[in-house]
Structures are given as structure tokens and as C-alpha cells.
Amino acid sequence: MINRRVGLVVVAIGAMYAPLFSCPASAQEPGRHELPPPPDGRSKVIGLCDGQTTVVVPGLAPGERMSPGQAREVAEELMRQYQGKTLLAHGGAGHTERETRVWEAELKRTIDEGYKLFHSPELGTNGISCDMCHPDASNTHPETYPKFQTQLKRIALLRDMINWCIENPMEGPRLADDDEKMKALEAYILSTRKGVPLAPGKH
Fold first, then answer.
1. What is the pLDDT of residues 85-106, one digit of tens each?
2. Fewer Cβ atoms within 10 A, N terminus or C terminus of the chain?
3. How much is the CA Rg of the chain, to the nearest whole Å?
4. What CA–CA distances, in Å, run from 149 to 99, 186, 189, 198, 200?
């Protein structure tokens, strides 16, 4: 398919009828998706975050930036293709029962792991655990991040304060942003405030 206004060539990757979510998120490796090679040296392949939908932009060299208008057209074409495949895969219906069960089970597993970490001294070296200062994780008010934190003297995300507590009161090593323990802690803390309106910047 060619979009005549910007010269887009849409390439469908993968089986359109295959389930879009065939395995739990934890079984998938993170990182940049592998894109098909461009057909020539003067075109660029842009991929959607599903790892399947791509658009070839003729006349754009690798590393060259699209104009704002062209970039918007490419993004819209990617989403149009993706939404069409989603409706086809689901038969125009909502998510399947299996998909819902998988997502709920994976989320519960992560939240449960976060609960264990929050109530364990293993993150530190001196025996202190998160719950000793915060018996109820909801009193950490995760819905108020990002906000300025006096301790850090800068705008902080929830994970920044988690690391501050690990490094200081608990005297433990900081966690990387992509550490599974950090993800679990954030998932647990956020789950305690489900239904509470977001209030970034609130003190």
C-alpha cells in the first residue's frame, strides 16, 4: 500500500491471524525490535512497538530525521495498520479470556513479589525493611510522583525515592531502573493506591 502524500510503503510482518499475545510478558526479551532491511540506501524502515508493523519511507536515508508532518503521517499509518490487525485478530471483539487471565496472573505475581521485598530486609544490609517506616505502602503516596523531594533536592520519580530509602535507612545497593526487584516494588506500591486520582507534584 502506498500513501501518495508522503510515499509510505507499508510492510506487514508476521502472521496476521496469529494471536497478538501468545506468551506472558515475562517470557519476552526486552530491547529494540529487529526490523527488515530497507529495500535500498535511500529509504528507512520505521517499526511500531508491537514488533510486527512497519512502514518503509522512501527517500529517507538511515539516520535522517523526518519532517514533523511526515513523522505524524508515518505514525498514523502505523497505528491504522495495527488497529486493523487487532480487530481482525480479535474478530472485532474484546480481549480473550485467556489473555485476561495471563495478564492478571503476571500482574499478581509481580505485585506479590513486591510485597515480599517491601516486607523483607534483603534489600538492605542492616536489618531494616521498607515496612518498618511505611507499615502500609499506600502511605508512600505514589500517586503524587513526580514531585520535588527535599532529600534529593530535585524532581524525583517513585523509583528515585525507593532507591533513596534503600541506600540510606536500609544501607543497601541501589537498584537499576530495569531491575525486576524495582519493577516489583513499584507494582506493589502503586497497587495499594488503585482508584486514587493521580496528583503529580502534590505534597
1. 766 555 556 778 998 999 999 9
2. C
3. 22
4. 39, 18, 18, 17, 12
